[in-house]
Design a protein that fits this description.
transmembrane helix; 2 helices; membrane; transmembrane; about 100 residues
């Protein structure tokens, strides 16, 4: 039983060593600072420009839509066509002939 406890401590040490090495061997505050610098760089190099591009495209689309005087604008809802076999319900069996 005593050997299983000793193996457990060695395993934890190996995992910490593996994680530390995968992060470039940095630990503690230095590791946290490097992640902060990497995150800041990623934001200013990738995220912010893509958000700005999307915003610029939306502004250009809004200006193009507002500047077109001939564009069609629907001002009211369309009225459904009252046909015998269409949108109006309850008229399926009604016919124009009167029963004799």
């Amino acid at each position: 039983m005593g050997s299983s406890r000793g193996g457990g401590r060695g395993w934890g040490r190996r995992v910490r060593s593996l994680v530390g090495n995968s992060m470039g061997g940095l630990s503690g505050r230095v590791n946290l600072a490097s992640w902060a610098v990497a995150g800041t760089l990623a934001y200013f190099l990738w995220i912010k420009p893509s958000q700005q591009l999307k915003k610029d495209q939306e502004e250009r689309a809004a200006l193009a839509a507002a500047s077109d005087p001939y564009r069609y604008v629907e001002k009211r809802k369309p009225i459904p066509d009252p046909q015998d076999t269409g949108l109006v319900y309850g008229n399926k069996n009604r016919s124009n002939k009167s029963p004799e």
